[in-house]
Amino acid sequence: MKKIRLVGVFMMAILLTIAAAACGQQQTTSLKVAEVTRSIFYAPQYVALEKGFFEEEGLEVELNTTWGGDKTMTALLSDGTDIALVGSETSIYVHARGANDPAVNFAQLTQTDGTFLVAREEVKNFQWEDLNDSTFLGQRKGGMPQMVGEFVLKKHGIDPQENLNLIQNVDYANIPNAFASGTGDYVQLFEPTASIFEQEGIGHIVASFGEESGHVPYTVFMAKESFIKENEEAIKKFTKAIYKAQQWVEAQPAMETAKVIQPYFEDSELDLIATVVDRYKSQGSFATDPILDEEEWNNLKVIMEEAGELPEDVGHSTLVNTSIAEEIINE
After folding, report:
1. Based on C-alpha coordinates, what's the Rg of the chain?
2. How distant, in Å, are the alpha carbons of 43, 46, 226, 327 from that of 235?
3. What pLDDT sits at residue 313?
4. Mean pLDDT rounded to a whole number for the chain
């Protein structure tokens, strides 16, 4: 009789273990994320993946690189992805086209422009007026890099259309190759390309567009309004994991962050990654919390309007949801 009871207890324990495991599996939520490009600029996102911050929240995150704002937003609006990491200006473009289910910004990742001005020749004591009458290889018209670049140039009294030989017909992915092949006296580049060019003697970093333009919601996690409403708990967990990563990056030396994110940049040396992380960190490019505040949103609209790319004046509360991020920070 005792033997039968012991077997019964043993079987019950096994069933309870299986049930617990099944419950654990049910609690895991899968999310698809599309990033507009692969960049050290997005270091906190990779930290959240590598340090297991998403897993701690019961999330399984599938990251895909969609290479371009248009492709990223197409993926989001067509339900090819749940969350998009892209410039917040794209949400304004979508709203202006009369979207019934707008893309809503819910967690900010970067808060400055991430590009640098690279000169072909070494320029001692660089002044912005040195650009006058030069050939400038710029970014795609209508994108944040181009708009910020134009905003900064005008801030320094330079009219890109009048004072420069401006080249804007080169695809984003081909801009570095065009400069390396001899096109342009100056070019606007992201990292790590800017630092690689400097190491290889192709060009010299002379200024930061991020430092010059101030805080803007440059790269933001967004999702369709309906998705956020239907998956509020998952969005909250996602935002919490990003916040953990932001705080971790802020607290750690650049080299520690570089070691964690190196698997995402296998073609880049560890020291170079650390240099780029330190450069972005020192100029405050990485947001230290996910809140996209109204002042930053208004700065974005000023930059877009200056570039002639603001289709309509969209209020902060229309396309930005700060309640989730605020709740997490206040916990």
Report:
1. 23
2. 20, 17, 12, 12
3. 96
4. 92
Question: Dihedral sign, CA of 273, 204, 181, 64?
Answer: positive
Instruction: Please state, in angstroms and as integers, the Cα–Cα distance from residue 85 to each residue in 73, 127, 158, 256, following that order.
Output: 9, 34, 31, 24
Q: How far apart are CA 146 and CA 143, in angstroms?
A: 6
- Count of positions (residues) in the chain: 331
- Domains in the chain (CATH in brackets) are 30-112+216-330 (3.40.190.10), 115-213 (3.40.190.10)
Residue 1, Cβ density class (10 Å: 0-12 exposed, 13-18 middle, ≥19 buried): exposed
Q: Max Cα separation, the chain?
A: 98
DSSP string for residues in 88-142:
THHHHHHHHTT-SS-EEEEEEEE-S--EEEEESS--TT--GGGGTT-EEE-PPTT
Find, among 29, 44, 43, the residue nearest to 82 by Cα. Answer: 29
Tens digit of each residue's pLDDT (9 = 90 or more) over 34-85:
999 999 999 999 999 999 999 999 999 999 999 989 999 999 999 999 999 9
Instruction: Give the CA count within 13 Å in the CB-facing half-sphere of 190.
Output: 19
The alpha carbon dihedral of 263, 269, 274, 276 has a sign of negative
Tell me how far CA of residue 10 lies from CA of 5, 6, 7, 17, 232, in angstroms. Answer: 9, 6, 5, 11, 40
SS (H, E, C) 138-207: CCCCCCHHHHHHHHHHHHCCCCHHHHCEEECCCCHHHHHHHHHCCCCCEEEEECCHHHHHHHHCCCEEEE
Give per-residue pLDDT as tens, 185-206. Answer: 999 999 999 999 999 999 999 9
Angle at 117 between CA 308 and CA 218, to 5 degrees: 50
Structure tokens at 205: 């970093």
Which residues of the chain carry a pLDDT beneath 50? 2-4, 6-9, 13, 15-16, 18, 20, 22-24, 26
Structure tokens at 226: 């309906």
